[in-house]
Amino acid sequence: MKLQLTHHLDGIDWHWLAQVFERAPLGGRDPALLEMSFRNSQVCCFAHIDGVLVGAGRALSDRVLWTVIYDVALLPEHQGKGLGKAIMDSLAEQAGAAQVMLYAAPGKEPFYAKLGFRAMKTAMAKFADTERAQARGLIE
Ligand SMILES: CC(C)(COP(=O)(O)OP(=O)(O)OC[C@H]1O[C@@H](n2cnc3c(N)ncnc32)[C@H](O)[C@@H]1OP(=O)(O)O)[C@@H](O)C(=O)NCCC(=O)NCCS
């Protein structure tokens, strides 16, 4: 098994990545919107095993003070082997800012806690679909 982490968008199959997200699971994604969100992110990380795209993550960053990480997901058969940590470390390193913020999918908080993240007391968000965010357990 040969792991390769890449940071460029050349050759990414966005339909395949949408399937990775769906299977992870991290929800259904429109491949065109998924591509746009990765293209508009300063830092992207793609995990390939033996040449096959198995996971990814992306970040917005001012490259000085704050990086915000989104959309870290792996195919189920490649979870629990340290790849999520590798993607997170790579995103933070590539972004190069002093501080990193994110919101966890409900139940995934222990993964981020292992990486040193702590729950914020004052974080707030305005989601496009408030009711859906409430139903997913993301906001009060
Ligand atoms: C969450 C996810 C990215 C984690 O990646 P991963 O490769 O499975 O995690 P790793 O193997 O790198 O785990 C790193 C550490 O966190 C721990 N960990 C990982 N997931 C965990 C969980 N759900 N609960 C508790 N601990 C967890 C691991 O045991 C490991 O601990 P160790 O260093 O003591 O061995 C991956 O499971 C995934 O894609 N899940 C589905 C999509 C999703 O929910 N993404 C997160 C969106 S916020």
Helix and strand arrangement:
Elements: E1 3-6, H1 14-23, H2 31-39, E2 43-49, E3 52-61, E4 66-74, H3 83-95, E5 99-101, H4 109-114, H5 130-135
Parallel strand pairs: 4-5
Antiparallel strand pairs: 1-2, 2-3, 3-4
Helix pairs in contact: 1-2
Structural commentary:
With 140 residues, the chain is α+β, with helices and mostly antiparallel strands. The protein folds into two domains: 3-102, 3-Layer(aba) Sandwich (Aminopeptidase); 105-140, no CATH class. Helix content is 31%, strand content 24%. The chain has helices at residues 14-23, 31-39, 83-95, 109-114, 130-135, and strands spanning 3-6, 43-49, 52-61, 66-74, 99-101. Strand 2 (43-49) and strand 3 form a beta hairpin. The longest helix is centred in the middle third of the chain and has 13 residues, at 83-95. The structure holds coenzyme A (COA). Coenzyme A binds next to strand 4, helix 3 and helix 4.
Summary keywords:
Aminopeptidase; alpha+beta; binds coenzyme A; five-stranded mixed β-sheet; 5 helices; 31% helix
